[in-house]
Amino acid sequence: IAVSVGIIFFAGIDVLTGSQTELEISEFDFKPAAVVAGFLVAYVLVMPLLGFLVSTMVFMPVVLYYSNIHSKLLLAVLSI
């Protein structure tokens, strides 16, 4: 409930201040978001077969590596 109240409060402030910020949709690259969404769908589909722990230990390094985290130690630590 507190999060909802906070969102409504800050949205109201944003509307009242009238600051206009525009994001050009053409500037946004949808490919990385689509790839991560594909990884997430695959993760959800594989989870019943491999179980939560194993599928998470496979999913995390793949997503982290795709996010340009190439340290093998960091990948291992964050995946466990």
TrEMBL record:
UniProt domain DUF1468: residue ranges: 3-78
Record key words, sorted: Membrane, Transmembrane, Transmembrane helix
Statement: the UniProt record of this protein carries the keyword tRNA processing: no
InterPro entries: DUF1468
Transmembrane segments: 33-66
Gene source species: Haloferax volcanii (Halobacterium volcanii)
Domain of life: Archaea
Coiled coil start-end: none
Protein name: Tripartite tricarboxylate transporter TctB family protein
